[in-house]
Design goal:
The chain has 287 residues and is mainly α. It has one domain: ABC transporter involved in vitamin B12 uptake, BtuC (Orthogonal Bundle), CATH 1.10.3470. It contains 14 helices and 2 strands; from the N terminus they run αααααββααααααααα. Helix 6 packs across helix 7 and helix 11 runs parallel beside helix 13. The longest helix has 26 residues.
Length: 287
């Protein structure tokens, strides 16, 4: 496989990382939560939805069910945090989502078992091919989804009264409450939106990334790396970071001697950016 072909092969994973990264950025900026349970919610919703296939529900109906389940389950977790931890720090609120991740992973294992699930990608096959380089429909669909979510969120936040309220609760939650803005409802709405997006992303990807719930939930790690590239503030950089991360992993698959490093790339990126973010404090102490 050529270098360009290997990079193209990683676009599918990169697109999925980009979607996860965008949702993490949205959650971090609007609700002060790094939602580690986000992928687990999407996986659970997709796994539950395919249970309706034997009942004759068409594929578009399966996707709608996944969207509803993802939004509902994510809303429930958001309601718990908004109700019981409204004044807690971002660290404490984010820690609760780790418990949510473990809970939904456990429920997925108990309800669906540990074997691979019959998730079929919504799109499949090559989109364009030239020589040994093939760009798949799935890769393009996931990248478009990430961009669409980012553009939609940007338009809502900057062009609508709802966006003004969302930015208000993000910047000054107490002041927003004093002005009569229903902070709790808006925050739960953000949880519902990201839950639905993740269910859609997992439905798009199917089992192209992993075979069971345990491995698929681990996609939160490269997704978090993509969001970290955007400093959990910029969705555009999260998209670029996710695509680059997928490309690098694809490139490593073409080099057998270092192929095993591909799963370490997201962790290395996370460590590097965390150290970089603390550089000023370290240098001040050194001086």
């Amino acid at each position: 496989m050529t270098i360009i072909g290997a990079l193209a092969a990683g676009l599918g994973a990169g697109g999925l990382y980009a979607v996860i990264g965008v949702c993490l950025v949205l959650m971090a900026t609007l609700t002060r939560v790094i939602n580690f349970s986000q992928v687990a919610v999407g996986v659970y919703a997709a796994f539950l939805a395919i249970r309706f296939v034997p009942l004759g529900v068409p594929q578009w109906g399966i996707v709608i069910i996944a969207l509803i389940v993802g939004a509902a389950v994510s809303s429930l977790l958001g309601w718990i945090i908004a109700t019981w931890l409204p004044e807690a720090t971002g660290t404490a609120r984010s820690a609760v989502t780790v418990a949510g991740l473990l809970f939904f992973l456990s429920v997925s294992y108990l309800q669906f078992g540990t074997r691979p699930q019959a998730l079929v990608p919504l799109v499949s096959g090559p989109l364009v091919s030239f020589g040994v380089v093939t760009i798949t429909k799935l890769s393009v669909a996931l990248i478009i989804l990430a961009i669409a979510v980012a553009v939609f969120a940007k338009l809502v936040l900057t062009k609508t009264p709802l966006g003004v309220q969302l930015r208000a609760i993000s910047d000054r939650q107490t002041a927003a409450e004093l002005l009569g803005i229903n902070v709790k409802v808006l925050q739960i709405g953000v949880w519902a939106f990201t839950g639905a997006v993740m269910a859609l992303a997992i439905s798009f990807a199917g089992n192209s990334q992993a075979a069971n719930a345990g491995v698929m939930v681990n996609l939160i790690i490269p997704g978090a790396a993509a969001a970290l590239i955007g400093a959990f503030k910029r969705m555009d950089l999260a998209i670029i970071g996710g695509i680059l991360l997928g490309g690098i992993q694809g490139l490593l698959t073409a080099i057998p001697s270092i192929n095993l490093l591909r799963d370490w790339i997201p962790i290395i990126i996370i460590v590097i950016f965390l150290l970089w973010s603390q550089r000023k404090e370290v240098w001040d102490v050194a001086r």
